[in-house]
Design brief:
This protein is an alpha+beta fold. The protein has three helices and five strands; from the N terminus they run αβββααββ. Strand 4 and strand 5 form a beta hairpin.
Length: 150
Amino acid sequence: MSIQVNTTHERILQRIDQALQALQAAGTDAAVRVHRGRVDAFGADELPAINIRRSTGQAEAFADMVSRGLMEFELDFHVRGDDWETAADRLHLQAHRAIAVDAGLNTLGRGLRCTRTEPRAEGGDETIGRLTATYQVQALTRGGDLALVS
């Protein structure tokens, strides 16, 4: 029997997924779908959607046998329509509120902040847009380990 242990970065991403799934269940945006690490393109009938993606991470010595990890993740907000920028911004705001107040996420990491956004759109019969928001969060880990300090 093997015990599965996830890295701090993975546990943070799982918690973000849970917080955004709760947002989806609450019907804040009735048709929003939440995905984790999706690489396939989204069809117009699948929008609006949020895709959670792992990004870079770095660690530095913090104290004796403790490291401070700075983890990044990205939220892609996929929307459609002529007002795609406004729709993506609204979805970003809803998602940000959901993760910023999530007690479980605040236990895993500190200093959550959005560091940049990048809009992209493709024209056609209907405009399909994506706003990518990059976030950072900090967590302490044991030296030589990638799990949280208790």
